[in-house]
Amino acid sequence: MHSRSKRNSVSFFKWLAIIIVFFTLSLSLWAVILNKEIVSKLEYVKIPLSNYYGVYHLNGGINDINIEFILDTGASESMISKNVLDRITEKGNYNVDHLEGGYYSLADGSNVFCERINIKTMMIGGYTIRDVVFGIMPTETDNLLGRNVLDQFKKWTVNKNLNELTLVK
Questions:
Q1: Are 69 and 48 in contact (CB under 8 A)?
Q2: DSSP labels for the chain?
Q3: Average pLDDT over the chain, rounded to whole?
Q4: 14 — phi, psi (to 5°)?
Q5: How far lies 46's CA from each of 60, 72, 157, in Å?
Q6: Paired strand residues for 102
Q7: pLDDT in tens, 72-100
Q8: What is d(CA 69, CA 123) in angstroms, rounded to the nearest whole number?
């Protein structure tokens, strides 16, 4: 009789494990379906990226000036060169507010003092972004689009297979 109750308890635990696995899979599937419903109701923008040697580039615009940016998810603020600022302000100062300058820590570990501006409106992928702070590098450099732009969105992802940036409004 003892071996029979042992077999019943083993059978019970097997069934319990199967039920738990089934329940967990059901919850996971429900979460995926719910997430797809939520994402499908959100507005989003897909922006093409160019990939040069593992660095993503995208196009933007300020004051009808086309600017190529490097997507830099490690930069807390976006950066443009003094040359780009001069081109922007040639079209008019109506979109630029000058801010107090500040020190920036660069990727090489050095610190540099930069002029700072607020761009009232700029375009990325046909989408208007408002109030973007840029540091102005005193020397010629790549233009960086940093987290201060990305963090204006509820969600952002980079699809490396399709070379695109998705911004969820």
A1: no
A2: -HHHHHHHHHHHHHHHHHHHHHHHHHHHHHHHHHHHHHHHHS-EEEEE-EEETTEEEEEEEETTEEEEEEE-TT-SSEEEEHHHHHHHHHT-STTEEEEEEEEEE-TTS-EEEEEEEEEEEEEETTEEEEEEEEEEESS---EEE-HHHHTTSSEEEEETTTTEEEEE-
A3: 85
A4: -65, -45
A5: 13, 17, 10
A6: 114
A7: 999 999 999 999 999 999 887 888 999 99
A8: 12
Q: Which residue has the tokens 């019943």?
A: 8
Dihedrals phi, psi of 135, to nearest 5 degrees: -85, 145
Tokens 């761009």 label which residue?
Answer: 119
Count the residues in the chain: 169
Structure-token match 């003892």, residue found? 2
The burial of 72, by beta-carbon neighbours within 10 Å (0-12 exposed, 13-18 middle, 19 or more buried), is given as buried
Cα 100 from Cα 115, distance rounded (Å): 7
Q: CA nearest 43: which of 168, 165, 152? A: 168
Residue 58 token pair:
């995208």
